[in-house]
Amino acid sequence: QAQEIRGFLHYPGWLLPGEQRQMLADLRAVVAAAPLVTPVTPSGRPMSVRMSAAGRFGWVSDRRGYRYAETHPQGTPWPAIPDSILAVWRAVSGSARQPECCLINFYDAGARMGLHQDRDEADFGEPVVSISLGDDGLFRIGNESRGGATQSLWLRSGDVLVMGGPARLRHHGIDRIAPGTSMLLPKGGRLNLTLRVVT
Ligand code: MD3
Ligand code: FE
């Protein structure tokens, strides 16, 4: 069922519709305790993606910099990662460790995420697992160094993507979402969950 694209493993439609609804219900409880926030880059620019997290760590950004933090900006610990999400990690990660962060990214119709690398984690030998829910997102995959050719891929609701091995340090981003392509979120938009080992 997996398709390889530039060293990433793509599992289209990994989650059944009922599993997606269960995960969404679990996420509603998470964001009720740890509300989505608009991170600000160190240069002071608000990001278009809104973020929260579950697990021991969340990823936060403000004028002081970006980092993994053990508390939400409001000062509270992050909620536990729901079992419905941990089950995906166990099934596809191939890792002996438990994820320490489930970063939650919410994209509304105008949101995007520029090409970047994920390198705030201590062990690049551990994979990152991404789960997409809601509207389609146009994912772009680049190279380990800046520049060069890129390849694009639509990520749809229920898709799972595993980034491991040499692909772990590739640049990647979301160019845009396609509003109205999913009925999962009543008000539309796209949720992306990334499971990470941080320490
Ligand atoms: C490749 N999120 O949160 S998920 C991020 O859809 C992030 O919200 C995007 O990039 C999103 O950092 C893309 C796919 C993804 C996630 C993490 C990766 C690809 C990755 C880490 C390393 C390499
Ligand atoms: Fe990333």
Automatic annotation (TrEMBL):
Keyword Iron present in the record's keywords: the answer is yes
Q: What does the UniProt keyword field contain?
A: Dioxygenase, Iron, Metal-binding, Oxidoreductase
Give the transmembrane region(s).
none
Instruction: Quote the record's binding site residues for Fe cation.
Output: H116, D118, H172
* GO annotation terms (biological process): oxidative RNA demethylation
Question: Which Pfam families does the record match to this protein?
Answer: 2OG-FeII_Oxy_2 (PF13532)
A single GO molecular-function term is: broad specificity oxidative DNA demethylase activity
Signal sequence coordinates: none
- Protein name in UniProt: Alpha-ketoglutarate-dependent dioxygenase AlkB
Q: Which organism is it from?
A: Paenirhodobacter ferrireducens
